[in-house]
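Input.
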Amino acid sequence: MQEPVIMRRIAIAFLAVCSLVAVAAPSSLQAQIFMSPDEAKKLGQQEHPKILKEFGGVYDDPEIGAYVAGIAGRIAGQSGQPAGNFTFTVLNSPIVNAFALPGGYVYITRGTLTLANNEAEAAGVLGHEIGHVIAQHSEKRYDKSVFTNLGVAGASILGSIFLGSGAGDLIGQVGQVGGGAYLASFSRENELEADTIGVKLLSRVGYAPDAQAGFLQSMSNYSDLAGKMAGAAGKDRM
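Output.
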């Protein structure tokens, strides 16, 4: 009596997975999932206030802000994309960090500017982040999260069918954690592509193409020093 029940569950599982695949049919997959420029801009606009709150707001020095925007604007101008595709912000944070969000939102902290030995190195950091924007890495990462969620949904359905609803919930939670960890940062391929694009743009503007390497060396030295100081103080290194 048990075998027919299992076979019915297999049939239900098969139909459920087929329905998920049908939703993401190849003919309409790109149109349904890939983030459009307007959607990317809207998402960047939504996240921008959160970034400002997290990193101490905009650095309160209009001259520095204009100076950085001028450097970044010249670099981005070599990409062939309209100037309106980018929004550059200097964040009031001592943390050494720079990143980009969907919709062309590029951020650099005052801590990063302090660590740069010259304008070319600061330009190298900005060029790298502009490279992420041009290659649409944030948007592509979003697409992967959609695929991850589809996979988690399928696993949850199968878990519910075979093991009960509690198991399906557990699988969904594990999938969300795993997917979130995988999508938390750009891949090495993404970083290399952003470097390549950034170096090309820097050379077109007239900056030394090895400026990125110089900054990375400074950042490595800074990281080593921070580690030694944290160790001497008995604190964990962040």
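Residues 9-33, 147-184 have pLDDT under 50 and may be disordered.
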